[in-house]
Design brief:
single chain; mainly alpha; 77% helix
Length: 387
């Protein structure tokens, strides 16, 4: 239980400051759990990222759930999800059920702008660290570069999946993973067992919920959000059209777009837009509806990850698969590099002052080793001053 509590409060702290979307979240996770706490090494962390890219659901939240699983078992995964999601859940529920005046909105915008600038710093640091770990020869550097170029030129989900698949093939036949590599973490790898029951639960809910939804409005809401979480690959912005179809005429377009903008602005996973939509769809019981919608949209991705994580890690011990993982690791560096520009950089840096602050922040984090908590406080203050 001590490990479970540790997982919860560490993810709770990250949930309060993780602005900038999935790429920024992965940067925060990498700095906290790989570099500082050493719960796992860079190679194991990259494998978790690559698995999350091939599963439906919120990628960064799935990685967080997997980190909790490794640290403290199933309850650790639950604790990671609850801690990381609670801040954004609270903010979006508050927004859906209250009206803020203009001065409060201005202050909130200032804080968010400062923390988005910090997200640029963190993602840049994580990208550089992973580049040093996984791009040590011309082939891996080329894979990372081509991945970044492809995603910058054609930022589509199918391109992301295609380049990861091609990187895996290139690594399987051309890669040279380091056979002398020793894990740097005290955490053991997963046992390698494929868990059948989460996959059965996932399939059973996907098939059965539409039929059960006819008996209750609550069942109908849960089924709609569960289906959205089951069918979205890439997470984030990709979930928008499905959620818009889910709510239908239950709310105005203006309120829907307000929730979408707020989900991008608050820290934590963007899938907590379901919190806002759930509360809006049930004025009589907003908290219950928000909880139900949030659980439903996250559940499919977590069930699939719980089922496949062990076998994914054990497969990486096979030579061909190890080579494929080597290629995917290099591609993940390119993926983070592309995400560093779009959406992290483009949504935060709007002028020379912003760029100067990012450069100073990167120097403070990378060279001076300033603790992240002091950088958070500093960028919050700067955001308020700038606005």
């Amino acid at each position: 239980m001590n490990n479970v509590f540790e997982v919860f409060w560490r993810f709770l702290l990250l949930g309060c400051i993780s602005f900038g979307g999935p790429a920024a979240h992965l940067g925060y996770f990498q700095r906290t759990f790989v570099q500082r706490l050493k719960w796992l090494d860079d190679e194991s962390y990259a494998r978790l990222i690559s698995l999350s890219q091939f599963l439906p659901g919120p990628g960064s939240s799935q990685v967080g759930f997997a980190l909790g699983l490794r640290r403290a078992g199933l309850w650790g995964g639950v604790a990671a999800f609850m801690g990381f999601t609670l801040p954004s859940f609270t903010l979006l529920y508050f927004l859906a059920t209250s009206n803020l005046d203009d001065s409060a909105n201005a202050m909130l915008a200032g804080v968010m702008h400062g923390l988005k600038l910090l997200a640029v710093v963190v993602v840049a640091d994580a990208t550089l660290s992973m580049f040093k770990s996984f791009c040590q020869d011309k082939v891996s550097m080329g894979i990372a570069l081509l991945t970044a170029v492809a995603l910058l030129l054609v930022p589509q989900l199918w391109v992301q999946i295609a380049v990861l698949a091609l990187a895996a093939l290139a690594g399987a036949f051309c890669g040279k993973p380091n056979s002398q590599h020793k894990p740097k973490t005290s955490q053991p790898l997963s046992s390698g067992a494929f868990k059948l029951w989460p996959l059965l639960v996932f399939c059973g809910l996907l098939a059965g919920l539409p039929w059960l939804s006819g008996f209750s409005s609550w069942g109908s809401m849960f089924a709609a959000f569960y289906q959205s979480g089951s069918l979205v690959f890439g997470g984030g912005h990709v979930v928008l059209p499905l959620l818009q179809h889910t709510v239908g005429d239950a709310m105005s377009t203006d309120r829907f777009l307000m929730g979408y903008a707020a989900a991008q602005a608050v820290p934590g996973p963007m899938f907590t837009m379901a919190t806002f939509l759930g509360a809006e769809m049930s004025a009589a019981h907003p908290l219950l509806a928000a909880l139900l919608a949030t659980l439903a949209i996250f559940l499919p991705g977590f069930l699939l990850l719980l089922s496949l994580q062990g076998v994914w890690e054990s497969l990486a011990a096979q030579p061909r698969v190890a080579g494929a993982a080597w290629g995917i690791n290099a591609a993940v560096v390119g993926l983070l590099g592309a995400a560093l520009y779009q959406p992290v950089f483009t949504s935060a840096v709007f002028g020379a002052t912003d760029m100067a602050l990012v450069m100073l922040g990167f120097f403070a984090l990378r060279v001076l080793k300033v603790p992240i908590v002091w950088l958070v406080l500093g960028f919050v203050a700067l955001g308020l001053v700038l606005f």
